[in-house]
Specification:
Number of strands: 0
Structural class: mainly alpha
Helix content: over 70%
Shape: globular
Order of helices and strands: HHHHH
Number of helices: 5
């Protein structure tokens, strides 16, 4: 009868992961809003950063990882993508995040941006040409 209990346990684990993801997204949102206020970053950049954070959070597990460095890296990548660059060092000072950790996450975010620009068949999207 353990087989009957397995789907329930799996569903419970999925609910815990969804709750964790919601908490991490909310935490990242507040970190990014604080960073935007301190560095005077426009709302369109913040929206793009939240999109990048969600994309990275769904492609990799954010469980047992610090959210602030990923949120900081997402904001820096969004600033760069929208041609309103801010330095990683300034962003880390504003959020109190380790520059080393944020730099690691910045590589992950940039890889996600590159993967998003490439279509499913390996060709570039028409918007990026």
């Amino acid at each position: 009868d353990e087989a009957e209990g397995a789907p329930g346990a799996e569903r419970e684990r999925d609910e815990e992961v969804a709750e964790l993801d919601a908490k991490s997204i909310l935490s990242a949102y507040f970190t990014m809003m604080e960073l935007a206020q301190r560095l005077q970053i426009d709302a369109d950049v913040v929206e793009h950063a939240i999109h990048l954070f969600r994309m990275c959070a769904t492609s990799t597990s954010v469980r047992h990882r610090s959210i602030d460095p990923l949120a900081t890296a997402s904001m820096v990548a969004a600033c760069r993508a929208l041609k309103k660059p801010r330095s990683l060092q300034d962003a880390c000072v504003a959020t109190g995040t380790s520059e080393r950790d944020a730099a690691r996450y910045l590589k992950l975010v940039c890889a996600a941006l590159d993967a998003d620009a490439v279509g499913g068949d390996g060709s570039m999207d028409k918007d990026t040409i």
